[in-house]
Predict the structure.
Amino acid sequence: MYFEDINSFLDMGGYGLYVWLSFGSAALSLLVLWLDSLFSKRTLLTQVLSEQARQARIKAAAEQSATAEKSATAEKSATAEQRTNGETI
Amino acid sequence: MWKWLHPYAKTERTYHLCQRLLPWFSVLGLAVILFATVWGLAYAPTDYQQSEAYRIIYVHVPTAVLSKSLYSAMALAAFIGLVWQVKTSFMAMMALAPIGATVTFISLITGAAWGKPMWGTWWEWDARLTSQLILMFLFLGVISLYKAFEDKQQAGKAAGVMAIVGVINLPIIHYSVEWWNTLHQGATILKLGKPSMPPEMLWPLLLSILGWALVSGAVFLLRMQNEILHREIKRPWVVALANKNSASSEGK
């Protein structure tokens, strides 16, 4: 160790402010860059999953409406038949 | 070489290659950077002229050196993208740009913090400082130009042209200390002949350059993966990957 104790290390011969400002801002900038990269990866992967879920919902809804429409038309024709039956009798 | 390179133009393979290399670059890079910084800050001898303030060199020089290397790498990627239309090269360009901007920013901040005690000013509009500031604006310009286009192939071409044109700034930065009268000192390591620095000061400096390079490499791998995911978000392999990823994180 070049310095005698921790205080002289922190003081940096009177230049402590400038030295620690440099290293601190460098560490902070690097941390921000790294966290940004990490979180955008996570965001992208969740985006893929939510898009997949959305597609599944769209598909399910389309199927549901198709079957509902089919049964609705079947019901409609059934009642119409009944009505015509009633009228003829 | 083309035969060897060709599979890496496919995004899926590139993604997995990045994934494999990522832990090595991250762990090794952080270890080297930490080791070199502690060495430089606490164990390297003092400077007879600048006393302890010179220790800023152990973050200022690595970032300044890397800012230029990263710009060259980005411009090279842009060139490959424009000439050979390799799909992944614009992605590499866009993965490099934010790293370059950050590293250039650090070199400017640390330069200011070094300039205040030594020159008596945080900032001076002299050749070296101004050309370095322009380098940061070039990085930011490439990023903004890319983001301005909806069609990403078009965006890559426009930003790529800007990156290549900006290469003119690199020799200006390098020779600015010789061509103009400037506050900034001349080259210490990267010059012909012997470096004007004793080895016990030089070694931690070289190591910290290596550490910063490795860490930049790690962030590049991560950002490259992000670029690939962003462009290929609808591909089946990406969907499969996201499912696998969420399954493994739920299992923890």
